[in-house]
Known about the structure:
The chain is an alpha+beta fold and about 1000 residues long. The protein has a 6-stranded antiparallel β-barrel. Helix 8 (about 365-375) crosses helix 9 (about 400-410), helix 20 (about 635-650) packs antiparallel against helix 21 (about 650-670) and helix 23 runs antiparallel to helix 24 (about 710-725).
Amino acid sequence: MRPEPAADGRGLDPHRIAEVIVEAGGGRRRGSGYRIAPGLILTAGHVVADATAVVVRCDADRDGEWSAPAHLAWAGRDTDLAVLSVVAPATAPAHVERARFGRIADDRHGVIDVHAAGFPLWKRRSRPGGTFRELHQADGTVAALSNLRTGTLEITVAPAGADPDPGASPWAGMSGAAVWAGARIIGVVAEHHRTEGAGRLTAVRLDHVLRRLDATERTELTRLLGLSDREPLPLAEPGEPPGGRVPDLRVVGVPVAYGIELFKNRTSERDSIARHLSDPAIRMVTITGPRGIGKSALAAKVMDLLDRGAWPGTAQGPLPSGLVNLSTRTSGISLERLYFDCARLLGPERLAELRAAWAAGGTPQDRLSELHAALGERLVVILMDNLEDLLDDDGSVADEELAVILDWLFRVRSTPRLLVTSQVPVRLAPELRRFAAHVELSEGLGPTEAAALLRELDRDGSLGIAELSDDELLHAAVHVHGVPRALELLIGALADDTVLLPSLQDVLKDFTRRHDVVADLAQDRYKRLDERAHAVLGVLAALRTPVRQGALEEIVAGLDPQLPAALVLTSLVRRHLVSVDRAHRTFALHPLDAEIAYGRMPRQGPHRRQAVERRIADWYGRLARPRGEWRTLEDIEPNRRRFDHLVRAGDHDDAARVLGEISEWLVWHGSVLAAVSMHLAVEGRIQDERVRLAHAVAYGHARLSAGPMEQAVRLFGEAVLLAERLDDRPALQNALFGLGDAHRQLGDQGATIAPLTRAAELARELGDTEREVHALLSLSLAHSYLGDGESALAGAERLTQLASPEGDLLTKARAGNARTIALLTLGRWQETADAGAETARAYRAADSREAIAYALNAQGIALLALDAPARAAAVLEEARHEASLMENPRAEGVCLLNLAWAYWCDGRTEDAAATADRASAALDIAGAGQAAAARSLAQAARALATAPGEAAEALNRAAAALDGNAEVIRPGWVLERAGRPGGER
Length: 985
């Protein structure tokens, strides 16, 4: 066995390139393959078709050469892909990590660097005793939009060096070679068409193969490849910069690259940042300064150095295992973005687990706890750029989600480090300031650095900068205070004017001693631009995210087909008005330029702001995937961006239509607050009544999860009236169900029966069994809350009947839920405890958390009635956890209130007081009436030891505040304890 370890699966390993030698009826042939796991070889299907024997060989004529028989493990019927099983000999590397697989985007223009290695015919060599095939590394590119009809990859490579056999392709034998983009396999070489020339190969696309397979074939292939059967392949990231990259480091998010090429010195500031980031006690380092001073460039330089395995200053610390780039000006800064970008650092398996945890619901704190547990002891540095967009003028946090993120950051023990750029310092509570550090950029570059930067900006000498003396350059730097962005804009202003050919002094004389140098320079440069340049800048500003050239051209063409977008873009790059991220092949505006460009967009004409926003929205609409392909939140990102642009265009009806398509999906996949925020953006602005109806129903369902319930009642009430007027029976059924359910959760049981009964009848008439099940479940629960247990049991029986024909697990679980609460209402305690446990198991068997919390809550109440408070407390704590995952404050509050009472009955009064406080907070958020009972119970628990009389009074108040709801402890139980508060418990 070779002593040295094999490569770790993070890229093409030469020791794992396989020569596939096939014996068939027509003789011997060769192909290529790759060892993707210890006993598996990936190759092309036609290479091993009709084979009578197959041998794979690795490291031919090299130390460690080995070969072994191979057998077909998988081959798709309609795909040119195969997996071979092989038992490698003892001389082969024993430690072989699985190869990683990915895909390239096929929904936009792009040219992606790829590579493959195999044994083509044109590399056949002669030697004494026979011939052999030499290994060939083919480096090339893939055009993302080519061959979409056949679902293959068109690879452009250097042409074959020879054509030894006119009757065969010179590339024969290359088939089966793994095609790599970055560190991921995206396909295998399959064909060479002579008519396309000697420099074009065709490869099977792995993602398209997976998409076309039936369920059985897909399951087997994903098992062999070590992939998730449900999750899409991750995007491959080709073109990682060579040299110095930390092997285990992952970078997520678009780098804050504005001005990174212009970065100069800042040695003392980098030392300060390095010292703070390496200090385990410091959680957040904030770089502040006026706009254009170089905050983003400094932060980007720090992240770039960490990415390459170097600390940014003299202080040293452990290198981070991951870097996350967030900015308010690109992808935005939100809890969702932070969660998923950090999750992507952990690889596809943990990402899939964290996606499932997010979709399951829960409070923001619960989700951050899941993320923290997944990150473990990994050191992650998170950059938040332009954070002032989420702060008030005094630096106070104005964004609720940012407040949650910072609270988490400062509370957990092992934590990510946060690097922030902001025009104003973040205002923190006094007790948190010792965990934060502040680095201020108040001065521009020094004279030497500023002069060097000006010379670099005129590398070819065409602007005459090289001929100026250091004193003249120093004079220019003083006039613009050494601000890096201002220096860049000065050079751009010189490049703009090709008629008068002004000198540097000519450009400077009108800008002396202005208050805001950068803004003044940029405004003047904008006056010099022609209409075409303004149009392109307006599109870039409206996009608010880096974009590829092809996408920009497509958007601009829809506004003005005659405008040469590529030519104008090149000019804007030359003038330093547009930044280029060459690694990702994207273009973007500096935040300052984006603000100015957006503000200067015309009010009339084809390039007016509204027209541009609409055009971008249409473009995102074409990128949107069919609903059946939605698996993760990333899959609906085009829909969300389309919504944002329609809102900015003032097209609130169309925005609401887009939201109507995704709102329910967002709610059911854990992004309730995002759905609510989007509905708020169009609330009160929709003109079309049918659109307003759809919005009211969808918004109502979002409020059912997020609260407050009063808003859900109002929205569903409006929807019922609209649906009746428009004679829209499906919408009426949906609105009636929502109205009844909202009344039920609000505790207004008398108003629940009529809408739910009508909703169930309508669903039956419409033939919609799923909606009938929902309505019957809520109706049964409503009967229970009204004390009519027998009617509730009848509803549970009807649900059981609906579940039986299809054996539907979820309907069976819902029938169990209805029966459990009915039994609870009737006081049949042991049956309730048994039914609650069985219902929780049924929901888990159906892979649904829908009502596990309610079933366990009922079981806990029954155990309290059976005088088993310790067992009840354990069950109710599990119920509370399940409720928190649902992101339902009322359910969590009810479970906490019952748990507090279990603690009281078990003699744990301190726990009872703390838990009752938590119950009160959750119930207040939900607008539930039991909040007063929770507050009184907390008061009673705190008074019991020293003032039993006060405790008894508080218990009486708690009992009076309870409304007799079956899912909450009985008022009589509390009154009984009030009669003996200090006695036996």
